[in-house]
Amino acid sequence: MNKPSPKRQIPQRRATARSLPIALLRARERVMQPIRAMLAEANVTEAQWRVLRVLEEIGPTDATEIAHEACLLMPSLTRILQGLEEKGLTARSAHPSDGRKQLVTITLEGEALIARHIEESNRIYGELEAAFGEDRVEVLLDLLNELARLER
């Protein structure tokens, strides 16, 4: 028979309602919920959409830069790029100055996919700004970017 463990002192901690990691997850879910429906219609995952948007924004680049900009781990990115390439949305080519690397480029099909859904994406974003406040969204983005830049 197991003896009950003696009561031990548990360090004081924040309530989950005031936990930054949990608040960030809740906010992410609120923001992503309407976007997921759009992505399902586009037949791409959240991560694939992020990669396409990064490539559209910065142009041809290597996997390391994509992983950084799209907040992905390299093993995941490798799988994601393979899926995008199979769909004809991205292409890889030799890096002009570093034979060990490859450049990843968004294809015309990838650009067309974004073009077909960018109006819906902008509508969703506009609804969020209307509900939360455009200025508050900008302040929140500034604060989150500042938080992300903190050194460990």
TrEMBL record:
- What is this organism's lineage? Bacteria, Pseudomonadati, Pseudomonadota, Alphaproteobacteria, Rhodobacterales
Q: Which InterPro entries match?
A: HpaR/FarR, HTH_MarR-typ, MarR/SlyA-like, WH-like_DNA-bd_sf, WH_DNA-bd_sf
Return one Gene Ontology term, BP aspect. response to stress
Stored SUPFAM superfamilies: Winged helix' DNA-binding domain
Q: Which domain of life is it from?
A: Bacteria
Q: Which PANTHER family match?
A: 4-HYDROXYPHENYLACETATE CATABOLISM PROTEIN, TRANSCRIPTIONAL REGULATOR, MARR FAMILY
Chain segments annotated as transmembrane:
none
- Which one Pfam family would you cite for this protein? MarR
* Single GO term (MF): DNA binding
Q: What is this protein called?
A: Homoprotocatechuate degradation operon regulator HpaR
Q: Where is the HTH marR-type domain?
A: 17-149
What Gene3D superfamilies does the entry give? Winged helix-like DNA-binding domain superfamily/Winged helix DNA-binding domain
